[in-house]
Amino acid sequence: MELGVMTKQAAAVAKPAAFPARSLGFRNPIRVGSRASRIGFGPPARGALRRRAAIRIARQRPVRSAVLVEENSSPAMKNKAEPVRIFVGLPLDTVSAGNEINHSKAIAAGLRALALLGVHGVDLPISWGVASNSGDWSSYLTIANMARDAGLRLRVSLHLHADRRPSLPLPQPVDRAVAANPDLLFTDRSGRRRPDCLSFAVEDLPVLDGKTPMEAYEEFFQSFRVAFADFIGSTITNITIGLGANGELCYPSFPPTGDNPFTGVGEFQCYDKYMLADLKRYAEESGNPLWGLSGPHDAPEYNQSPYFGNFFKDHGGSWETPYGQFFLSWYSGKLLSHGDRLLSIASKVFGNLPVTLSAKVPLLHQWHNTRSRPAELTAGFFNTDDRDGYEAVAQMFAKNSCTMIIPGMDLAVGDQLVSQIMQACKRHGVRLSGENSSIIIAGTAVFSKIKEHILANNSVLDSFTYQRMGAEFFSPEHWPLFTQFVRSMAQQQMDSDDVPSKDGRLSLRMNSVPGNDRELQAV
Amino acid sequence: MSLVRWKPVLHRPPRENPNGFPRSRCPPRSQLPRPFCYRKPVSRSVSCSTLPKDQRPRVRPIVRAGVTQTPSLAEVEDAEVLFSETFQLKHSQTVEGKIAVRLNPAEADENGTKWRLTVGCNLEGKWTLHWGVSYFDEIGSEWDQPPPEMRPPDSVLIKDYAIETPLKKVSSPLEGQMLHEIHIDFDSNTPIAAIHFVLKEEETGAWFQHKGRDFRISLTDYPKEDNVVGGRRGFGIWPGALNQISSLLPKAEGSSSKQKDSAGEVRDTMIQNRHISQFSEEISISKQLLVTNSMTVSVRKSDDTDKKIIQFDTDLPGDVIVHWGVCTNDGRKWVIPSTPHPPTTKIFRQKVLQTLLQPKADSIGSWGLFLVDKESSGVVFVLKLNEYTWLNNMGTDFYVPIGRESSSTTEIALDNIAREQPTGTETQDVRNRLNILVPPPNESLEATDPKEISTSPIKSQVTLRTDKAVAYTDEIINEIRSLVTDISSERGQGAKSKEAQESILQEIEKLAAEAYSIFRSSIPSFVEHVSDVEISKPAVKVCSGTGSGYEILCQGFNWESNKSGRWYSELSAKTKELSSLGFTVVWLPPPTESVSPEGYMPKDLYNLNSRYGSMEELKDLVKSFHEVGIKVLGDVVLNHRCAHYQNKDGVWNIFGGRLDWDERAIVADDPHFQGRGNKSSGDSFHAAPNIDHSQDFVRRDLKEWLCWLRKEIGYDGWRLDFVRGFWGGYVKDYIEASEPYFAVGEYWDSLSYTYGAMDHNQDAHRQRIVDWINATNGTAGAFDVTTKGILHSALERCEYWRLSDADGKPPGVVGWWPSRAVTFIENHDTGSTQGHWRFPSGKEMQGYAYILTHPGTPAVFYDHIFSHYNHEISKLISVRNRNKIHCRSTVKITKAERDVYAAEIEEKVAVKIGPGFYEPPDGPKSWVVAAEGTDYKVWETS
């Protein structure tokens, strides 16, 4: 048994290095360096044991040095000749609420499979709540180690919100403060508290045992930086800052229960005491004190269409009135300034490190063809048919040298919105990464959609993160599609003389027919 | 674990007279190993067939030419072996055993508070107990870690809720057989309410539990536990006050449980104090083993120069019948060989021979010698073990070439080595394995080194399988690694690197499979199954619109029905017939005044005098349907409405009648009609003004109209026309307001095609329909256009494999959301005199055999009911009704091949469509034909 384990590990680490990039066409050509250093061992030994030893020795140095070479050149602007780097998201509950590693064996096998396939790295979600409550980074560090051992890069997502499923908490001091003062949470018109994250209006109030939320965020970033010092810049190449609900820059405007994506317009989240006070102040400053008494009274509810109530109507809706413009500027401004402040803290903490910073925006495509685009408005993007709301967002990202992550690259809808966001980023020189929305609807169509986005002529994506590893991901219905996708991405990016000759080419045996766009529905 | 089993290739049954044969007159043959044809092994093992020298008999039988009897084994012993091949025969075998569960006081205990739970199993295997406990103060059935003092030493914690402890081998003093056992000691004062466990067999990865339920040893009889006993949970081992044990285990009849508990009894004897009773229980289990036997077939020279001797030798237990023939040239057509035939041979159907092999006297297995003509190019055969078990060579017939004699020095060398192989055998292989193809390393090179070569045949025999199951060996990994090494040193050699790539890919596959199996089995899995979510959703208000689930729909009109002007009265003459056919719902044509005679261009919604008849006739018709127990659906057109008047620009956009709307009721993006409403929430219907459902007054008016139809006419539900034109959320609004018994929407858009052929995967298409149903909040069903489309392709092109999706489920909406799918094969638009998308002609009954046996709510088109299909349709409907198939029935696809599709529904009905052959397997159930016709057949259980 002991021997078996060792053998497997040796195999796993040996392969990515000992196996030159071009034979499979998967890996970044820079790794070829490893080959030169192992030639000295002469013809391969016949005996299995000797062979094993040879490989193990051979792998040690080359991998590390390849890492260094690559990282030094990494934070430059995207070079078009370089293939898009593909990452795979690890399960949200990789580290459970109790700071235990879930399914570590499966992740270990999964990491090796991904490495062999030529995936660039993985994305590790780190929960503020889990890390602060335990005060112990060891579980997350173990995962980072596993990724490094598998020869994979790591993107790290620092989530400052709570997750419903799997259930991941906010830190205990936050919970305590919230219990004492529920107004620290976002609140909708009917008074429902949203437990996802802290209201943007309390960020500078010393509500967390004398600290402000901003200070707490900074402390968390610092703690991460210290704990992962060994990895940052080598294994860890990117840090993603969660800017709001679901880790995206937005208000929690989606329905508090039920499934995402929802089909309605969502609701404004400005009804906690502090948001209302801020609105009141803003109204008074702008000379219309009466506008600051509450949020829009004629907006629909979460799951209604824009035409319920008067606020979002295409013609003569309140959103077009001076009041509407006033409210929406304030509401979206709060989101922008929250994003800006959090990103500047992040760049203060991580700025001098050889990692890229990034943050995610939501892709709120529903109702994008109406004039008022209500789903975007309620989430905090003042983007209507006569106002480009992403201009300011891109500017904010540019200012903080932050890469923007656009999710939903797998969706058949939303192209218009994606290209609007991409345009804004292009104008401001913001780099882009892509993500898919959900594996639940994966199928061949989805992968070709993703490819279309990545390979588009004007594409500025420099990485793509596929969410996310789990049983579904490795299922016989899904996995062959994913491998095919990764392979096809690698093939297309290679120079023609890098592609194996005709008879050397190999197609993956797909024993599963494309499919599994499953929308599971119960009877 | 080795992948290869070496078998003694030549089994030697005892000779009656070992030394009684005179020496052959023929010059003694070389005692060197015989040459044999070395064939490149692909998933077969090749071995030589000689025996160690010292045992080699020095005798030669006399085999005279012209002897018409088949030779005896002894006679051929020394005949030169021309070819030999060993086939691995894998088949499954059920092994039965017992799980014993005992709870008694620990021996050395004075206070009597120490108890011991013993779980044992007498089946071979690597058993592990996967267990947890629940504590007193906990609600629900969650598992927890047992307290540390309860954990046996070699236990492994599984997250924070379970523990795994391997069972230890002990020899049972009673039966003298091996037992695997585990003891769990605990103190009765520990606050444990129950111990839960499942048994896991590590080698097969099999879990032993009951239909997903855990074993449960309850240590309390508090009333709150009464759900366990009451049988609602269906399973539990209950050592309560009555020492009652209830168990439903993998094999319930084997349970030695003495009493069946009942909720009442136990409740009566509920004791408020904890009281643990001693008990002991044995439960029969069965385990499927994959057994590997082998069959060695050798071709030998016969002294009869025209013949060759084929020797069969197998270790398969029991009777083995070789079902065989010869083939000539290269064709694999079976021909009966010329006589003489071996003893115990029958000619089967004038095509093949069936020869019963003779049992070996000294060991398990049997053997046989067949004489065949030298001219035959080979022998083809399959093996029959019993009526139900046939063995073939991975899907094809076994084939042994008779070929020509050949020899070469390298082969002799190989032969020599092979003789030194150990002959140890292992006949049971209980692992699922993933074997990969590793091409033989350069034989010619390595053959020069006997030591080296002794391992090479093993390597070369690794078989190729795409089996997804896990288990790998280090050997294989080494093999891959060696190839990797080879590759990197000889890069550029096409073939080699291809092999290496293959190996890497296999390795990737294996890792992925491993990850999959662990992820899948980790219980608090995060992967969301919407189905669970749906089930756990609180039953909101039971919304109307979806009926009882047993509906069978009849479309009560066609495109021509308006022609007579009195359709309502014509149809009312047929109500009794429709009812007796078994229909429960009828869909009537659109009732409103309409610009087009068929009714789909409505004008005044409140004017119900149409080309189908007057409003009074409609009411009478509805009444007469109700009298025969048929519900009635009204065809309502909500997407568009024709205007009465022109506006000042001459555009027809002013409505009259009771609903005198103006251009504000028309969507803004409908340029022809100058609408002033909001933008459309769906697709546009171009021939008439599209209604803007976002307007409150429009929705209010429409709801009122629907309620009026319900009340005034007596409609029970709706067929909603062109629902692509507006948001499903509005439909939900309408359904909730009008509360129909049943509602179905027509969401018809095109399927996806590539180069003129329909794509196999129509998930995007059905997704759109499901999305619509979702938007209505499930209040309405939708016509399953996807299923119709797939049936078209499958039937037209003889591509019945299309009828199973990647998950092995029906590929239409019915595979995803059966209770909301209304399956149909034709309607007034697709067929009738319009024929926009007609069902493949002549194959309609196959379509009906499919939809009338499958889940979903089937709809039958009027034209088909009143046609020569009437009788066949009626038969299918009665099969559906008799077997109580409903829209949520489970379906198991048993075959989806080029020319035949077959499925079992609810395990009560089996159906096949397509020209290919299919019979449902006889098992515990016996099937009788319930309906049949051209290229379809339906069975039900008798």
UniProtKB/TrEMBL annotation, chain A:
Keyword line: Carbohydrate metabolism, Glycosidase, Hydrolase, Polysaccharide degradation
Catalytic reaction equation(s): Hydrolysis of (1->4)-alpha-D-glucosidic linkages in polysaccharides so as to remove successive maltose units from the non-reducing ends of the chains
Chain positions covered by the region annotation Disordered: 493-523
Organism: Canna indica
EC number: 3.2.1.2
Active site: E248 (proton donor), E435 (proton acceptor)
EC category name: hydrolase
SUPFAM superfamilies listed in its UniProt record: (Trans)glycosidases
Gene Ontology terms: biological process: polysaccharide catabolic process
Highest taxon, organism lineage: Eukaryota
Gene Ontology terms, MF aspect: beta-amylase activity
Matches recorded under InterPro entries: GH, Glyco_hydro_14
PANTHER family assigned to the protein according to its UniProt record, in alphabetical order: BETA-AMYLASE 1, CHLOROPLASTIC, INACTIVE BETA-AMYLASE 9
Similarity comment: family membership: Belongs to the glycosyl hydrolase 14 family.
Name of the protein: Beta-amylase
Automatic annotation (TrEMBL), chain B:
Catalytic activity, reaction form: Endohydrolysis of (1->4)-alpha-D-glucosidic linkages in polysaccharides containing three or more (1->4)-alpha-linked D-glucose units
CDD domains hit by this protein: AmyAc_arch_bac_plant_AmyA (cd11314)
Enzyme class, first EC level, given as a word: hydrolase
Residues in Alpha-amylase C-terminal beta-sheet domain copies: 881-941
Sequence ranges assigned to domain Glycosyl hydrolase family 13 catalytic in this UniProt record: 551-880
The protein's Enzyme Commission number: 3.2.1.1
Region (Disordered): 1-27
GO biological process: carbohydrate metabolic process
GO molecular function, one term: calcium ion binding
InterPro entries associated with the record: A-amylase_bs_C (IPR012850), Alpha_amylase (IPR006046), GH (IPR017853), GH13_cat_dom (IPR006047), Glyco_hydro_b (IPR013780), GWD-like_N_Ig (IPR056301)
Cofactor(s) required, per the database record: Ca(2+)
Key words, A-Z: Carbohydrate metabolism, Glycosidase, Hydrolase, Metal-binding
Pfam families membership: Alpha-amyl_C2 (PF07821), Alpha-amylase (PF00128), Ig_N_CWD1 (PF23166)
Gene3D superfamilies, sorted: Glycosidases (3.20.20.80), Golgi alpha-mannosidase II (2.60.40.1180)
Family recorded in the similarity comment: Belongs to the glycosyl hydrolase 13 family.
Subunit structure: Monomer.
Name the UniProt record assigns to this protein: alpha-amylase
